[in-house]
Write a structure and sequence with these properties.
The protein is an alpha/beta fold. It has two domains: 66 residues, Ribosomal Protein L25, Chain P (Beta Barrel); 166 residues, Alpha/beta knot (3-Layer(aba) Sandwich). The strands form two sheets. Strands 7, 8, 9, 10, 11, 12 and 13 form a seven-stranded parallel β-sheet that branches. Helix 2 links the parallel strand 7 and strand 8. Helix 2 crosses helix 3 and helix 2 runs parallel beside helix 7. The chain is elongated, with a radius of gyration of 20 Å. The two termini are 22 Å apart. It binds S-adenosyl-L-homocysteine. The site of S-adenosyl-L-homocysteine has 17 residues, from helix 7.
Length: 246
């Protein structure tokens, strides 16, 4: 049962008032009608069980039956910076990172990034990626929706990540520090930044730049994963050791 994210103010007291795209989606696509119960939530806020009392084409009203407070803020807050991936690999990576609890997603432009955001379309594309994160969060009943940032140059993002407590760049260099050794038994930081490269990998100069900016290079072992697979694997391992997975 998905949880639909609502704008702040859609719930007043025990009454829910839904308009716009969500109302049209519920009424039009999902054929929700009076008497049915839906779950609504403000991103990061409480979750409400609502019985629909009236539904017309683009306005629904409902009665709040139950309110569930959000769980305490989950630590660590994880930002995933990953090189733009071509085709539907990008959407798949956004969806999986959302399901695995990433708080922020930053598409990166690195030296070997094949996909280059096209200037006038960038914000339209970023909005589309944000909607993918929203839908993934709704389907997985997440309490929060990750923020999808506009694509950024790799060096700018490394500099911007200076305040993140633990910064890791995923590098498939044989014999490098393993992610497992970096995580296992170590104190849980409040925030983590993960950098994952493009299909062609990071350039050595990018690894140096990241290390100079406080990132630690870590390896997932001998298997070379696709960028999108590395996003899923790395997030899973961090959430397993330091988060709430497993
Ligand atoms: N240059 C590699 C392919 C890059 S894989 C080659 O052709 O051999 C794409 C990205 O996924 C890499 O930049 C890295 O960030 C991550 N990745 C994939 N496998 C990895 C591994 N075994 N260890 C660390 N990072 C890995």
């Amino acid at each position: 049962m998905p949880v639909f994210f609502i704008e702040r103010g859609a719930i007043q007291g025990t009454t829910a008032s839904l308009t716009g795209p969500l109302a049209r989606h519920l009424k039009g696509s999902l054929r929700v009608h009076p008497g049915e119960h839906v779950w609504l939530a403000e991103a990061g806020g409480p979750r409400y069980e609502v019985r629909i009392t009236a539904a017309d084409r683009d306005h629904l009203t409902g009665q709040v039956l139950a309110e569930i407070p959000p769980p305490p803020l989950r630590l660590p807050r994880i930002t995933v910076g990953f090189a733009l991936i071509k085709g539907d690999g990008m959407e798949w990576a956004i969806q999986k990172a959302t399901e695995l609890g990433a708080a922020r997603l930053v598409p990166l432009i690195t030296a070997r990034t094949i996909v280059r955001p096209k200037a006038p379309r960038t914000s339209h594309q970023t909005q589309r990626w944000q909607n993918i994160a929203l839908e993934a969060a709704q389907q997985s009943m997440c309490w929060e929706v990750p923020v999808v940032a506009e694509p950024q140059p790799f060096d700018a993002w490394c500099a911007e990540s200076a305040s993140t407590a633990c910064r890791l760049i995923l590098w498939e260099k044989p014999g490098g520090l393993s992610l497992r050794d970096r995580l296992r038994g170590k104190p849980r930081p409040d925030s983590v930044a993960l950098a994952i490269g493009p299909e062609g990998g990071f350039e050595p100069g990018e690894i140096e730049l990241a290390e100079h900016a406080g990132f630690e290079a870590v390896s997932l072992g001998a298997r070379i994963l696709r960028s999108e697979s590395a996003v899923l694997a790395t997030l899973s391992l961090v959430q397993y050791e330091w988060g709430d997975l497993g």
